[in-house]
Specification:
single chain; two-stranded antiparallel ribbon; globular; alpha/beta
């Protein structure tokens, strides 16, 4: 039984080049996060996009972490395109930043304690102040920049234990590093919900502007971020490779489906 089924959810998943992506809306993803916290057991939420998928094709450990997560939201617009090309469309893009923001609101409403880990020194502190202003009643149990390096795990665990009960943890170390950190440390800390949030704390702090809503709805948030942070151009090279790989995969699946159909007719 999958972790989602154990929590009482029946959610369709699709395969995008070997990476599991769950067909959820933002509201449904938040419901899953709430169930994770209520369960009291450790659950990891991941935010795959085109970059994640291409990295996971090269890195079997990263692919394992993504596929073994409780929930894998369709974070990037590229995944919606992939769903259509593969014949398994997704209903909605669910940005990790939006989900992290809603989790903060959930914590404020339900009295859950939130911890912000990662980003550059001082960023998590500023993000905490902005979230507390946005969601009155929110308790940020603590913030810590820390390090994703394995050698720093003991010190980081000690800082989180000093914070007392933590119901939800947002980890901003970037793809692969944040998921690996959660995999190594979450269970030992007894934190029910952990989400790798990439640059979300930069957005919450105001340090990095987020794309306007119209650009996000059009799936062009990646372009806005490239304009704001041009040093990211190398990372964006994954996007055309992703589209090519998904196109070939879609053609192969359709061809295989046609062959299967033909075989069925022959047997009839």
């Amino acid at each position: 039984m999958s972790a989602l089924h154990a929590l009482g959810f029946s959610i369709r998943s699709i395969d995008v080049l070997g990476v599991r992506v769950d067909d959820v809306t933002l509201a449904e993803a938040l419901d899953v996060c709430h169930a994770c916290i209520r369960s009291g057991q450790p659950h990891r939420v991941v935010t795959p996009n085109a970059e994640f998928v291409m990295a996971a094709r090269r890195d079997a450990d990263f692919r394992r972490l993504l596929n073994a997560s409780t929930l894998a939201i369709p974070d990037g617009a590229g995944l919606l395109l992939a769903g259509r090309l593969l014949g398994t469309p997704l209903r909605e893009q669910v940005a990790g930043t939006d989900l992290a923001d809603r989790v903060a609101g959930l914590c404020a409403r339900e009295g859950y304690r939130l911890f912000l880990l990662g980003a550059a020194p001082g960023v998590a502190d500023l993000a905490a102040r902005h979230l507390e202003a946005r969601y009155p009643g929110l308790t940020v149990a603590g913030t810590f920049a820390g390090s994703p390096d394995h050698s720093a795990d003991d010190a980081t665990r000690a800082r989180l234990r000093e914070a007392g009960r933590i119901d939800a943890l947002l980890v901003a170390y970037g793809a692969r590093k944040q998921e690996a950190w959660i995999d190594r440390n979450q269970a030992a800390l007894g934190i029910p919900l952990a989400i790798g949030v990439g640059g979300a704390l930069d957005f919450f702090s105001g340090r990095v502007p987020r794309a306007p809503l119209l650009m996000r709805r059009a799936g062009l948030d990646w372009l806005f971020r490239l304009i704001v942070q041009p040093w990211r151009w190398r990372r964006q090279l994954a996007l055309p490779r992703f589209v090519v790989a998904v196109t070939y995969e879609g053609l192969w699946r359709r061809r295989r489906g046609l062959r299967s159909q033909a075989s069925g007719f022959e047997k009839d």
